[in-house]
Amino acid sequence: MADIINNKGEEWLYSEKVKEHFLNPKNFLAEEPKEGDFDAEGEAGNFACGDIMKAWIKVEPGTERIKDFKWRTWGCASAIAATSMFSEMVLENDGMTVEDALKITPQDIIARLSGLPPQKVHCSVLADQAFKDAVKNYRKKSK
Question: Kind and range of the H or E element at 112?
Answer without folding.
Answer: helix 106-112
